[in-house]
Amino acid sequence: MSVCLMCLRRIASKNRLHTFQFIRSYASFFKQLNGFQFEPVPDLEYLLDPTNRETIKENIKSRKGIGDIDLLHKLNEEYKEDSSELVKERLIQTALLIPNQSSPDTIPGSKGKIVRTHGKKTADVASKSFEDICGSQGLLRFQNIINSTLVYGARSYNLMGDLARLERALVHWTIDELEKKGWRYVVVPDMLPEAVVKACGFVTTGRQNQVYKVRPEQGGLCLAGTSEMSLAALHAGTQLGSHTPIKLCAYSPCYRAEEARNKIDKGFYRLHQFNKVEMFGVCMPDQSSSLLEEIIDIQCGLFSQLGLCFNLIEMPSEELGAPAYKKYDIEAWISRLKHWGEISSASNCTDYQARRLSIMTQEASFAHTVNGTGCAVPRLLMAIVEQNQMNGKIVVPAPLLPYMKLKHLRPSRQLSHYRNFIKKRPMHAD
Q1: What is the C-alpha separation between 370 and 286, in angstroms, rounded?
Q2: How far apart are CA 427 and CA 413, in angstroms?
Q3: What is d(CA 58, CA 64) in angstroms, rounded to the nearest whole number?
Q4: How many helices (H) and strands (E) does the chain have?
Q5: Reduced to 3 states, what is the DSSP secondary structure of residue 3?
Q6: How does strand 310-314 pair with strand 389-390?
Q7: Which of 3, 96, 115, 268 is most buried, most CB within 10 Å of its CB?
């Protein structure tokens, strides 16, 4: 049966469920995940409405996104004449490249808006940088301190002694706090099918690609850049029950092939591998705004308890990426660099990810997904160390004292041992 895609609006006006069934029947672009075949379902009702065309075009431009709404309409006209599988697949894939809509109150451009500020900046004179003080006390092995690139690769690190214990305490405390607030802890995989990564809105090819791929000849597995991907995949092909929102959290390694773009990025601030606690929620469409606010309140509460100075920033259009409808960042004061650095973010992705992973509600509409960082370990460690120095000592924040049993981090002599070992060991060529 040949049906014109422009008829979607007429079908939708009669019965919304018929529209979903139609798109599913005619979307040949599908992947397989854990034995379940799911088909991405772009919002063709909205995208192919001529009255939305200029708004969509401006949204793509404002976000500096990829996607071509003019090409989509051209393919739709072509499909009227040629309803072949090839044209249908091109149409669906073109529609999937178009980014999510932006919130009406999103600020256009590249500069965000400070919503609130917590705490006061620490004195710059007395504090040392994270790398300097932790390196001098033998708590950090980083490429600037020892040539670790010979062993681990660029921007790799080892946390030593009490700094490693501080990470453990920080993670355990964060998870405990989230569980108290009703977020269920989940252990997730680090490797995912490329289809899942794409469905979550992350680029896997081209210059903007930040994804590490593992043995592409065996199915295109990718290392997860955030546990948001794994938690989203957990719900692929599911239908929400009556108990919503679903609130999950996970602690996992994150892998990102990001380039260092400036002096700050070249330090400990931007790494190829780091650990993170992530919050992820799946909810009804009318719950996503309040769930985003809940995540923001949790984030601000956690960082306030740690005694950090930070800004909550509503992000502008150019920082939304493809999936976010609305996004906030939290930036902590890095005193030595005189710089505000991102330590956390939170996004409402509305139905962008759910449409690509077939996450439905009982009313046959698509669910909404929301995510937020609970604890990005390296950057949070950097903020804690930079803002908690006293007479050359690193003070442990009060909430972590029950986990650390220490008021200050103790210097470690392990690093000096490694230095001497490397210097004394003879190197022989084959």
Answers
A1: 12
A2: 24
A3: 10
A4: 15, 17
A5: coil
A6: unpaired
A7: 268
Each residue's pLDDT tens digit, 320-332: 999 999 999 999 9
Token pair 């920033």 is at which residue?
Answer: 313
Q: What sign results for the dihedral spanned by CA atoms 188, 193, 199, 202?
A: positive
Sequence letter at residue 136: S
44 touches 7 (CB < 8 A): no
3-class secondary structure, 393:
strand
Name the CA dihedral angle for 412, 417, 419, 425, rounded to a multiple of 10 degrees. -160
> What is the distance between the alpha carbons of residues 57 and 73, in angstroms, rounded to a whole number?
12
Here the contacts of 338-341 (C-beta below 8 Å, separation 24 or greater) are: 338/124, 339/264, 340/311, 341/264, 341/269, 341/379, 341/382, 341/383
pLDDT category, 418, cuts 50, 70, 90? low
Question: In one letter, which amino acid is 322?
Answer: A
Place of tokens 């609006």: 9
Would you list the DSSP string of 330-378? EEEEETTTTEEEEEEEEEE-TTHHHHHHT-B-TTSSB-EEEEEEEEEHH
255 and 205 Cβ atoms separated by less than 8 Å: no
The continuous run of DSSP H or E covering 384 comes out as helix 377-387
Start-to-end C-alpha separation, the chain: 69
Q: With beta carbons less than 8 A apart as the criterion, state whether 327 and 345 touch.
A: yes
Q: Is 229 helix (H, G, I), strand (E, B) or coil?
A: helix
Coil, helix or strand for 156?
A: coil
Nearest CA among 316, 373, 313, 294 for reference residue 114: 313
Among 50, 56, 57, 42, which Cα is nearest to 93's? 42
C-alpha span between 48 and 61 (Å, rounded): 18
Q: What pLDDT is stored for residue 154 in this prediction?
A: 60
Chain position carrying tokens 């973010």 = 345
Residue 113 vs residues 13, 90, 99, 105, 329: alpha-carbon distances, Å: 39, 38, 22, 11, 10
3-state secondary structure of 430: coil
The answer to which of 22-31, 242-251, 279-288, 339-348 has the lowest mean pLDDT is 22-31
Nearest 5°: phi and psi at 318?
Answer: -70, -10
CB 315 within 8 A of CB 329: yes
Q: Which amino acid is at 388?
A: N
**What length is written for the chain?**
430
DSSP code, position 407: S
The pLDDT of 337-348, averaged and rounded, is: 91
